[in-house]
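Pipeline run #58 for the internal structure catalog. This entry was flagged by the ingest filter as a single-chain record with no existing model, so it goes straight to prediction. Upstream metadata was stripped on purpose; only the residue string is passed forward. Reviewer on rotation: M.T. Logging verbosity set to normal.
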Amino acid sequence: MKNLSVEQCQQDLNALDAADQLTASVEREIERFKNLDMKDIIGKATKMLMTGNLSLEALGLPANFFEQIETLSKINNVTRKKYRAHVQANINELAVIEDAEYSEVTANE
């Protein structure tokens, strides 16, 4: 099994905290956008086309909205990979224990 340090574990916890904050921010923006009236969205889109200002801010979203989503996706990918490795290590440990218990039972028969 892989040796971990306290520093590595703290970095992982910090990354999870950052992901939680980023998720909350993205969810707020999505919820706010979902609650916009379709007439408001069409009005904003029309104004964007007329002025040539085609931006997320003109729609009421932060300029870095897609960057936030990409960052969140990267953090989630790393987290899932690490968690998958942790679960697989647990499965391997349990398999060794089960094999040892089975060997002990069959040896006693």
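catalog note: The chain is about 80% helix and 0% strand.
catalog note: Residues 6-108 form one domain.
status: ready for reviewer M.T.
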